[in-house]
Amino acid sequence: MSAAIEFRDVSFSTPQGRLLLDHVAFTVEEGTTTAVLGRSGSGKTTLLRTVNRLIEPTGGHVLLHGKDVRQSDLIALRRGIGYAIQETGLFPHFTVERNVGLVLEAEGRSRGERGRRSHELLEAVGLDPSVFARRFPHQLSGGQRQRVGLARALAAQPGVLLMDEPFGALDPLTRAEMQDMVRGLLARLEITVLLVTHDLDEALYLAQRIVLLGEGKLVSELEPSEFMRSDQPEVTEYIRAFRRGENSAARSVGAQRGTP
Amino acid sequence: MSDFLSRYGGEILTLTYEHLWLTAAAMLFATAVSVPAGIWLTRAPRWANPVIGVANILQTVPSLAMFGFLLPLPWLGERAARIAILALTAYALLPIVRNTYAGIRGIDPSVVEVAHALGLTGAQRLWKVELPLAAPFILAGLRTATVTCIGIATIAAAVGAGGLGELIFRGVASMDNRLVLAGAIPAALLALAADALLGLLERRFKVAGP
């Protein structure tokens, strides 16, 4: 297997001098999914954004298929990378179909081709095109919007897909549904995925490798089973903290329902 | 009344046409300058405060004084309409620049981020995403500017640029309220019509929210 994404000592500090990424180095193999875990402020989103150059590292290199992303044409680079985020960023003035086909529109593909591809992708993410293609984003539920965002990210058949907490804003049931759908889809597409999440279970379910970031540094990079067995203090602490958070969330849901 | 109309009707029509022409020309110039300026400010935000500040100061110059300042200038002073159009343009700048800038800056950041991330070029971002989403704000700025200009254009008669102000000034000088109203009522109707028309356009461009 060859490297699809390679982080070589990637650092980033803000103009105010805050170090958000500190010599992060790891590789994402072609066709695999790597989850980047970490608490808020650990630098995971910043790291993800260095790949499509929404953020330019202040040190080190990011390589995509062996080529430094800084040496690629910015527009071509971004069109070759899918991007799906928690807020979805759907264009509110476009229909679902046009949202999905926008990258193809930007590339000057024909209307017919765009329409065909949009419908194909809507089906792939579990939305019936005859129902949803003509709708506007505000006429969709959170989960449906997220599906459209994913379809749009895949429109130009990118080799790499970046996902930033794509299910973070969804309720647990919808999230589980989405995770099932994405797992099936990713397996079919054989696409390389970098998934930023704070949800350990999501990482375990979707990823072949788990990277844990802490305060901008790479803490560990392991397979899911190794991750769960790891006795590295930062890893066990993260797992414990995550479970604790989960329990307290469950308790507060219970309290709201009036059960002890 | 019918006497008055048969005597002044033709003149009112001519002056209304002049009034419209002055305002339309000024709005055309102001839009051609302000919309691109507002867009540019979103790309170079550190200039936003100084530029909007200057437009703000222009706005505070009393209109009679503004016409007076421009009178002695060469070329401009030769034709009163030139002065009027330039002055009206100056007054129209602020609302359009400010609303263009604020309209584009106010777009949901995640939408802008995705527009970048999908690899839209600068021009594609502008035409497909930013301008359509900022359109209601830009049109609101145009509307404010138009209504303001229609009002201020009445003062343009003071430098002999014509327009409905002529009737008002003449009416004041001869203490004839009918003449004042013959200028003021059509000017007010013009302003209301422009407001309604542009308001309609603005709503047409509004994107339905959640």
Could you characterize the architecture of this molecule?
Chain A has 260 residues and is an alpha/beta fold. Chain A has helices at residues 44-51, 74-79, 96-100, 102-106, 111-124, 129-132, 142-153, 172-189, 200-206, 224-229, 233-256; strands spanning 3-13, 19-29, 33-37, 59-64, 67-68, 81-85, 160-164, 192-196, 209-214, 217-222. Chain A has a domain at 1-75 and 194-255: Rossmann fold. Chain A is built from eleven helices and ten strands. In chain A, strands 6-7-8-3-9-10 form a six-stranded mixed β-sheet, with helices on both faces. A four-stranded antiparallel β-sheet of chain A has the order 2-1-4-5, with helices on one face. Chain A is globular, with a radius of gyration of 19 Å. Chain A starts with a strand and ends with a helix. By secondary structure, chain B is mainly alpha-helical. Chain B has a single domain (2-205), classed as MetI-like (MetI-like fold, Orthogonal Bundle). Chain B is 80% helix and 0% strand. The longest helix of chain B has 42 residues, at 2-43. Chain B is elongated. The termini of chain B are far apart. The mean pLDDT of chain B is 92. Chains A and B meet through helix 2, strand 6 and helix 4 of A and helix 5 and helix 6 of B.
